[in-house]
Amino acid sequence: MIVIFTAQDPSLESTKDDRFGRCPWFIKMDTVTNQWEAFQNPGVGHTSGAGVAAAQFVIDQKAEAVISGDFGPHAVDAFHAANISMFLYSKDISSIQQAVESFKQEKLSLFS
Description:
Blueprint: E1 2-7, E2 25-30, E3 36-40, H1 50-60, E4 65-68, H2 73-81, E5 85-88, H3 96-104, E6 109-111
Parallel strand pairs: 1-4, 4-5
Antiparallel strand pairs: 1-2, 2-3, 5-6
Helix pairs in contact: 1-2
């Protein structure tokens, strides 16, 4: 499964970023092979529409799920239309690696 995490830095050791549209980095991971890549968020510098630009990037990456601390209404609409599941970081998660493990263990809350 292709999953995208919002991060502050381009590594698995990165601190999570709770902002979806304004996070500096996305970590894209294939949870089957554990292959991952880091991408700068194309929406981070937008004065408006950051969430929409970020959501389109996630959709273009063929993600099946996205994990962040929160999602704006336009990103939520885009993900619902694209059938991409949204999950929330729990308070005890600080790094992307912890988020990966929590996701694999199905410990993250689904955003509805």
